[in-house]
């Protein structure tokens, strides 16, 4: 369980394909603090730390994860948002994020507003019921508030701190990002039989 408040950014150091899996070596300021078998959010995807060495950690994404996320397109040098699991004795500064990506979205517009930024994303319309005006969403693991919602698009506004401390600064038109919808909305949708 995560909060969507990014602790650090890492960088993909190496990508190894083995069968239908992809293994990633990632360097980050937190890598040496991790423990083997620890769950860590990488751009919103919960992955298990398998090995730690020389300021880097190794994680593997299986075929199912690669199909539902943007990890299949990760390349060496790519910036990655990193968050450790939330502590149950602290404030929930973002929103409840499971690290279970629902789908991907594509950036269709990016605006520099001279002090903040707006990004507009297009997502599969079948998820429209889970996207509400002023609701919470996880974009590459970052907890954000959405607005200007349509059946298949939404916008997020980014403050300078978030822009400078997450991988959102790397997102351009055409960039595919990981999306996790609000867990409460998913349970309500299920209960309503939608």
Automatic annotation (TrEMBL):
Keywords: Repeat, Riboflavin biosynthesis, Transferase. It comes from the Bacteria. This is Riboflavin synthase. It comes from Filimonas lacunae. It holds the Pfam family Lum_binding. Gene3D superfamilies: 2.40.30.20. One of its GO terms (biological process) is riboflavin biosynthetic process. NCBIfam families: PRK09289.1, ribE.
